[in-house]
Amino acid sequence: METEITKTIKCKLIGLTKRKLELLNREYDNFQHYLKTGEDRGVYSATKQQGKRTYRKIDPDKEYPLVIRKDLMDIRKTDNKLAKYWARIPVYGVRGGVKVALAHQPFSFEEWEICGSKLVRKNGEFFLHVTVKKKVEVKKEYLSIIAIDMGARWVAVSVARHRSKPKFYGKRIREVRGKYFWLRGKLGREKKLRAIKKIGNKERRIVNDELHKIAKDIIDEAEKHNAIIAIGNLNGVRNSNKGKKVNRKINSMPFYRLKEYIKYKALERGILVIEVPEFNTSKQCSKCGSMNTERPSQGLFICKDCGYQINADVNGAKNILKRARGYMLGAGAAVTQPEGERHWHTPQPPMLPVEAP
Ligand SMILES: [Zn+2]
User: Fold this and answer.
1) How far is the CA of 295 from the centre of ligand 1 (A)?
2) β-pairing verdict for 227-233 and 273-277
3) pLDDT tens by residue, 271-294
4) What ranges in the chain are assigned the alpha helix state H?
5) CA 1, CA 139: separation in Å to the nearest integer?
6) How far does the centroid of ligand 1 lie from the alpha carbon of residue 292, in Å?
7) Domains of the chain, with CATH numbers?
8) CA of 241 to the centre of ligand 1 (A)
9) Using one digit for the tens of pLDDT, what is the confidence trace for 146-157?
10) Taking a C-beta distance cutoff of 8 angstroms, is the pair 198, 168 a contact?
């Protein structure tokens, strides 16, 4: 099964000479002027057209990135010492455009198709945002399943068919969030607003780094054990009866971002991620299926029917694993093979909308 992934690479333009900087600023300013007034003081014609097409409603107080037409974006690998990749930005009145160096990226443009680019100006510096795509082949058969339960306490808890011990992720994130929560409170009382914003950015960066590490660990394991990844789908449950504001809050939670990272990175490596309805996964006993259960404390799960006692998040992950198995059997797995060697077929997986995180 083939699918397409896209992502946006953000590259800072480096080593700009005074002349180049002037040209880019002129083009950028003229573009803003054109969008807001319709008057053309000199903007590359294709960029003008793209701008009109992209930005329908213009806010006079906003700045809009230059939209560079797909076929005009020329990114090349060079042996130049300053940068591995150079790009040409089409600029009005300059034949061949302005040649700019892109700050180092752990990324190979040659393997991707360029779909579109935007030149963004921020605090006097320029960044090129390049959207790229490529086709990936997603594996159809798997030997194991990794099931992930996401939540607030542990960002993720995973169980897998190929190991008996659960894995807990997110200790560091909890520590970081706790620390910054405390700091923000303290700075708030001292009314240090700029400092609050600054540490907010720092916190986001650290949490994001952690989330990427967690996603990588899960996907490395999936690759090693040829496992499909199953994640609980909270959205279906929550979106239905809660307002937009709540959704926005959920979407900004670390586990939501983690899910996006996992989906994306897995697909990039040809591993499928299936989403399993998470309805009742926290209430149902993963051993006997009973709903006659209790949680005497947040972390503990007890089944009143079979007496099963387990960490509540692990119970959730086990339910997701069960449901994923059920789904895969339903999708046509060969059930005659011994449990340990069963291949999991996925003829019609519920495909995910994949966007670059
Ligand atoms: Zn039970």
Assistant:
1) 13
2) parallel
3) 989 888 888 888 999 999 999 999
4) 18-37, 45-54, 171-189, 193-224, 235-241, 244-251, 254-268, 312-330
5) 7
6) 8
7) 2-136 (no CATH), 138-169+206-345 (3.30.420.140)
8) 29
9) 999 988 778 999
10) no
C-alpha angle 344-347-348 in degrees, rounded to nearest 5: 120
| Bridging pattern class, strands 227-233 and 144-150 | parallel
Q: How far is the CA of 108 from the centre of ligand 1 (A)?
A: 51
Ligand 1 center to residue 353 CA distance, Å?
35
Residue 276 CA to ligand 1 centre (angstroms): 21
| Tokens read off for 339 | 């449990």
Angle at 74 between CA 97 and CA 119, to 5 degrees: 70
Structural contact between residues 100 and 11, judged by C-beta atoms closer than 8 angstroms: no
| CA–centroid distance, residue 192 to ligand 1 (Å) | 52
Query: For residue 181, how far is its CA from the centre of ligand 1 (angstroms)?
Result: 38
Q: Hey, what are 248's tokens?
A: 């926005």
User: Residues 160-194: pLDDT tens digits?
Assistant: 999 999 999 999 988 988 888 888 888 888 888 88
| Sign of CA pseudo-dihedral 202, 248, 115, 70 | negative
Biggest distance spanned by C-alpha atoms of the chain = 79
Instruction: Report d(CA 309, CA 222) in Å as an integer.
Output: 28
Q: How many angstroms separate the Cα of 64 from the Cα of each of 34, 122, 127, 273? A: 11, 11, 13, 36
Give, as one character, the DSSP assignment of residue 152: S
Q: Determine contact, residues 64/50, Cβ cutoff 8 Å.
A: no
